[in-house]
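fwd from M.: "can u put these together and see what the complex looks like"

so here's what she sent:
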Amino acid sequence: MGVSENVTTITKALKAACKDAGRKGDEVALMAVSKLQPDDRIEEALACGIRLFGENRVQDAQTRWEERRKAYPDLRLHLIGSLQTNKVKEAVALFDCIESVDRESLVKELAKEMKAQGRHLPCLVQVNTGEEEQKGGVSPHGLKALLELCRAEGLNITGLMCIPPHDLHPGLHFALLRKLATQYGLATLSMGMSADLREAILAGSTQVRVGSGLFGERSTG
Ligand SMILES: *Cc1c(COP(=O)(O)O)cnc(C)c1O
């Protein structure tokens, strides 16, 4: 399947899930996760009109997007992978939204760098809903303190993001993320990937992040 067929299929699935959830089709943004994808597939997605892309590594995103995005003024690029504090400068310069805010040191560095660059990006806090050791994200009970710090530092947090554990039913994690977002008055819920976007939309997702479902399998490099 080519990318354009996949875009049609995923868009249909997204609209159908919205309909079943009693939501409008335009309430859920479709992000194309372009990490590790070859140039020709990215060009195909752009030709289909996709303008929201996600990347999980700063350096790869620079290589793939720094030049290319000049041709697409309406392009929006989100960082969805963990961010090291020594890459914050590059990240703030390149991305339009950081979805992986998850710890105090990162909050402080982001706030400092955004001031320095005069780029006040919206950010999401990543929540480690499954409390998995190897995964990024703040634990659900650490969220309150982190959000308070973000407010004190002037970081604009507009929502929450999660990546549920592989082996468990994702619905519980989506429901937890939604509950937390409601509790703290945050509007954006970045949840749902290729395999579970329907479930995420039924649980209230406002943005799904789809990689392999749009582009096909990615190289492992
Ligand atoms: C890779 C990735 C995705 C996309 O995963 P697919 O299963 O290929 O749709 C979504 N979110 C994050 C954070 C990712 O790293």
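replying to her w this: The pocket of pyridoxal-5'-phosphate is lined by residues 33, 35, 56, 80-81, 163, 193-195, 209-213 (CB under 6 Å).
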